[in-house]
What we know:
Layout: E1 13-14, H1 20-25, E2 30-35, H2 50-55, H3 61-65, H4 67-82, H5 84-101, E3 108-112, H6 121-124, E4 136-140, E5 151-156, H7 162-170, E6 175-180, E7 198-199, E8 202-206, E9 227-231, H8 236-245, E10 249-250
Parallel strand pairs: 2-3, 4-5, 5-6, 6-9, 6-10, 8-9
Antiparallel strand pairs: 1-2, 7-8
Bound molecules: iron/sulfur cluster (SF4).
Residues 39, 45, 48, 52-53, 56, 58, 116-118, 141 line the site of iron/sulfur cluster.
Amino acid sequence: MTPDIFPEHKPLLSPPDANAKLRHSGTESHAAWSLSLSPTRPDTCPHSTAGCRAACVGSGGLAHAFPSIGDSRKLKTEFFTRQPDRFLSRLENEIRAVVSKNRDTGLTPLFRLNAFSDVVWELVAPQLFCIPGLKVYDYTKNPHRAPLPNYSLTFSRAEGNEAHALQWLERGDNVSVVFHELGNYSNHGAYAQRLPKKWRGFHVIDGDRSDFRCLDPVSKPGEPGYVIGLRLKGGIREREKAIETGFSVPSADWL
Ligand code: SF4
């Protein structure tokens, strides 16, 4: 039998402490395991835009600083595309093991399967969503997706998809919007950027307090969704590109 492309002794899921954002979001009651595929493949991020690719932490950030991290994500992505049955079987076993290990511990495991991708998991692997106790959350730029009871999806506004973002908000689903203020806000200074209270008439919630989007407020039936405000981060060049393309929205226009 052909061996798996991705080493069998390595897990596909990253534990909660492997991702700074997920680690900081963790609480005594919730922690998130994530799947990091490579966003550079057209089949993993088919709705990406020039602006989001420029600001993407999946290809910049740690993957840029430590090439071995980017290489591992690429190999995992090769495994997914070339040996999908083996990939999905391993992924399901890992998820079941995490859920089972944390049953009755008081900790609810969350899963982010598109840490740096936009795979339609509900169609690619519907069997995953039958796992009892499963809670998955992701951002998506695919306007045709819709949240499931155990799969929270936040539409991610970018340049060129604002009409879809407004449709999601109007039908009651949440949408993330990246905002910026001009100035030198690299590293932790990024958090000094102000978020507006409203964007296009919809209430803005501070999405940087936690990454756990599945715990965000959900609107009542018939009411519009919430805007999940995120501050533009990254290096100077990434910020410039995100602003220039319109991927990031100036807070000043809405304050
Ligand atoms: S869609 Fe998301 S993961 Fe893909 S390139 Fe854009 S920001 Fe990165």
